[in-house]
Amino acid sequence: MTKRNHDWYKLQKDSNLFHKAIPADIAVYNKLKDTNWKINFEHAHYALQDLLGVTSYKRNFDFAVITDIELSKQDLGDIVKVVKKLYDQSVYGVYVALLSYYIVPDKVRPQLAGTYSENLDTLLEEFFQFSSTQENISTVYDYPLQTRWIDGRLDEGANFIFVHPNIKYYLWKDNA
Amino acid sequence: MRKITRYMMWKQPLHKWDTYIQNKHKQNKQCDSWSKYILTNLMHGDTVVYNCGGLYFTDFQENILVVENKKCPVNTNKTIYMPEEIPADKKFNNLIMINPITLKYNFSVSNFLTMATDTRGGLKPCLVNWLTQNNKIFLSFSDWVLYFDRLRYTVTDMVDMQIHQLEKNNFKCIFSEVGDVNQDTENGNIKLVLQYNNI
After folding, report:
1. pLDDT tens-place string over residues A104-139
2. What would the CATH number be for the domain defined by B3-196?
3. Which among A112, A143, A144 has the least Cβ separation from residue B151?
4. Which of B1, B12, B151 lies closest to A16 in CB terms?
């Protein structure tokens, strides 16, 4: 997490732009709070671990959470290797969130015919094929300046994508 | 909200502001190579800096008018204007923008320059309306701020498409540079100098 984004999160909190936690963090919290799983937060924003109030396990963990926005700046192939490694080491699977504005693919794919959000779904479904079950809850919006005004406010950016990125997948193992 | 928090919120998206503050008490003020390039290539005449912590440029050149989209919550020794304070008949020869938050999430640089729209950084005026017939636009930004399909196009492809669209909309690109996005995060990795045919 860069200092700039780290401070931005604190600033937004200080400004009362949100209270207990941001909605995307709460969604993950609700999924994990009753599990008693040992969780790996090595690549997660501290806010989510604070919210769950649990220790991070580097080894012998049940589940891994990946929300660190800086990871999204790596080559997509390298990110998938990190996700797969944590998935393999886990008992139940991983949750991964990446930022659509930072994605660096291994190569461009001019043959992709959909919108950016559709193309991300297509490619990531393929990249995450190692997992038994994919649960895609991404909130990637196409042409956000034209389409994402809610109650007079631009949703993009206001939905805290710099703390909890907008490409969001649960990758589950069969026993989950 | 505390005044210091309001100030931090105000300055956070203005990419030249921190360097302006750091320069305040320096005798040898820090001027990066892109800023030097801009200052040495300005057209003769009036210059406006928009939405980037533009007081930074006033340390190196007088008669630069600074416009931000939101009022600074603390006192500054130098004047910062709001877009609505620029008289309709006031025109500039040079327009400078460094990583403006008003460009964020846009898909089109041409749209950004020619349309008055609401943005992530507040209401943005139609920027080309500020320009005289003889003009230069110095615009740099990070590719991270633009919406485009990163799976189908490289950053260079995207910039080529932006320039193509700009040229269809009465702009001429007289300089373009695409660098690594992790380098020069203050100014951004995409650097453009444009001329607008203000017909």
Report:
1. 999 999 999 999 999 999 999 999 999 999 999 999
2. 3.40.50
3. A112
4. B1
Tokens 């990637």 -> residue: A140
Closest partner residue to B120 (CB to CB) among A7, A143, A157 is A157
- pLDDT digits over A6-46, tens only? 467 777 777 767 777 888 999 999 999 999 999 999 999 98
- Considering the entire predicted model, what is its pTM? 0.94
DSSP string computed for A115-166: -HHHHHHHHHHHHTTTSSEEEE-----SSHHHH-EETTEEHHHHT-TTTS-S
Question: Residue A49: is its pLDDT beyond 90?
Answer: yes
Distance of CA B29 to the CA centre of its chain: 20
Report the alpha-carbon distance of residue A78 to residue A122 in Å, rounded: 18
Interchain pair B144, A102: CB under 8 A: yes
Q: Could you state, in order of their start, the residue ranges of all structural domains in chain B?
A: 3-196
Structure tokens at B87: 């008289």
Name the average pLDDT for chain B: 96
CB contact under 8 A, B152 and A119: yes
ipTM comes to: 0.93
Of A100, A108, A157, the CB nearest to B153: A108
CB-CB under 8 Å, A156 with B148: no
Residue A149 to residue B157, Cβ atoms within 8 A: no
Q: Which two tokens stand for residue B69?
A: 């989209």
The distance of A111 to chain B (nearest Cα, Å) reads 7
Q: β-strand B122-124 against B117-119: which pairing, if any?
A: antiparallel
Percent of chain A with pLDDT over 70: 95
Length of chain A: 176
Interface of B with A in 163-192 (CB under 8 A): 181-182
Q: Do B9 and A73 touch (CB under 8 A)?
A: no
Q: Give the tens place of pLDDT for each residue, B51-74.
A: 999 999 999 999 999 999 999 999
* A14 to B148: CB separation less than 8 angstroms, yes or no: no
